[in-house]
Write a structure and sequence with these properties.
The protein has helices spanning 3-13, 24-31, 39-47, 55-64, 82-106, 111-125, 133-142, 151-161, 180-183, 192-207, 212-219, 223-232, 271-274, 288-291, 333-349, and strands spanning 34-35, 67-72, 76-81, 131-132, 165-167, 176-179, 237-242, 245-250, 263-266, 292-293, 297-298, 301-304, 307-316, 320-327, 353-355. The chain has three domains: 17-183, Orthogonal Bundle (Arc Repressor Mutant, subunit A), CATH 1.10.10; 192-250, Winged helix-like DNA-binding domain superfamily/Winged helix DNA-binding domain (Arc Repressor Mutant, subunit A); 263-355, no CATH class. The relative contact order is 0.13. Strands 9-12-13-14-15 form a five-stranded mixed beta sheet. Strands 1-3-2 form a three-stranded antiparallel beta sheet, sandwiched between helices. The model has no long low-confidence stretch (mean pLDDT 94). Helix 3 crosses helix 4 (55-64), helix 5 (82-106) packs across helix 8 and helix 10 packs across helix 12 (223-232). A hairpin with a 3-residue loop joins strand 10 (292-293) and strand 11 (297-298). By secondary structure, it is an alpha+beta fold. Helices cover 45% and strands 19% of the residues. It is globular and about 65 Å long. The protein has 15 helices and 15 strands.
Length: 357
């Protein structure tokens, strides 16, 4: 095995080349968590791994609470299966809170203030009442809490870490919040050690080949905790040294046969790219600034034979959309035809007609 094999294996284990799942929540659970910073693109991240699904299919899973969206892991927005949120949050919340403590202190937010904000939100959201951030802000201000200067963000963020609130059903294009107890009732708790081991198992089963550094980056765990999780799962994994790095992967993997001219339109922040510290197996390092801009903003990518060949962007109208490609190299005739096919698949997912740009 060499570095050229890594991307092909990732396309397989990440359920891009083919999938063994039939439900959105199964895809999310396979990964453990799926980054969902850009909500429409996050739906496509799940949908492209479920051929024939639509944006409405994924939306329904979110609305019903089978998939929840919250801040977790690194942290950033992630989709998490309802059955997994509590143990994952219990594992990562303390570390996330510690990293945020300086901002809380600067804004004058202490435990007493957070207890009050939690009480206000719990009362406002009870009995299945899903509220937008703006509606929650009104309730907090009525209770005498100051919500400006990032305080509103901190109130909601803290309530997520306290396992009080999570995403509710969308209201049009607006996210709502709901009580976690009403969306994901308590289930059997895992010990901290069990949670670390389970998170490591999910990561290396779905993201391999990957390094310890990749897992540390993706999970937000300390190096010591990540190493412990890897060691617990070592009997189900094997490692190979590739260009002086140790890559771990499940025993069941096989190096895929060459699939010439395979092409995929992956969304912004897709796990194929965002969940690794070292992305050089798929991305030429000098191209990073062309697809990763600002403070870690990942553009939608065009992947050809496991390598990033460019980025794409969409323009959406009422009943149609156009897709523009910005290529790092020219596509051949077969690849260009594959791009058109994938563009039509994406348009169908969104319930739109594809117009030529």
């Amino acid at each position: 095995m060499d570095k050229n094999d890594i991307a092909g294996i990732c396309l397989s284990l990440q359920q891009i080349a083919a999938t063994k799942f039939t439900k959105p929540e199964e895809i999310v659970s396979w990964f453990g968590a799926v980054q969902a910073q850009d909500y429409p693109m996050a739906k496509w991240a799940v949908g492209l791994r479920l051929p024939g699904s639509t944006a409405e299919t994924i939306e329904a899973a979110v609305a019903s609470g089978k998939i929840l969206r919250t801040h977790i892991l690194r942290p950033t927005w992630h989709f998490v299966a309802a059955a997994d949120l509590r143990w994952m949050l219990a594992l990562t919340a303390k570390r996330i809170r510690s990293a945020s403590s300086g901002m809380f202190r600067q804004l004058g937010l202490d435990q007493k203030v957070f207890q009050k904000s939690n009480r206000v939100m719990a009362k406002a959201l009870r009995n299945g009442n899903h509220l937008t951030r703006a509606e929650l802000r009104v309730e907090l201000e009525r209770a005498g809490l100051i919500t400006g200067d990032m305080r509103m963000t901190c109130f909601v963020f803290n309530a997520e870490l306290d396992a009080l609130i999570c995403s509710g059903a969308r209201r049009g294009k607006q996210q709502t919040y709901a009580l976690l107890d009403e969306r994901a009732p308590e289930n059997a708790a895992l010990s901290r050690e069990e949670s670390i081991a389970e998170l490591a198992r999910r990561y290396f089963m779905s993201h391999a080949p990957a390094t310890l550094k990749d897992f540390v980056w993706s999970s937000g765990l300390s190096v010591a905790d990540a190493r412990n999780g890897l060691e617990v799962n070592a009997s189900n994994l094997f490692s190979e040294e590739i260009e002086e790095q140790t890559y771990w992967m499940p025993h069941s993997i096989s190096v895929p046969k060459d699939a010439p001219d395979s092409l995929y339109l992956l969304p912004a922040f897709d796990e194929f790219m965002v969940s690794y510290k070292d992305r050089s197996a798929s991305l030429e390092p000098h191209r990073a600034k062309e697809m990763i801009v600002g403070h870690g903003i990942f553009k939608p990518i065009i992947v050809v034979n496991g390598k990033i060949a460019g980025v794409w962007k969409r323009s959406v109208k009422k009943d149609s959309l156009t897709i523009e490609k910005i290529l790092f190299r020219k596509l051949n005739r077969t690849e260009d035809k594959a791009f058109e096919q994938k563009a039509h698949e994406y348009a169908a997912f969104e319930g739109k007609n594809l117009e030529r740009g």
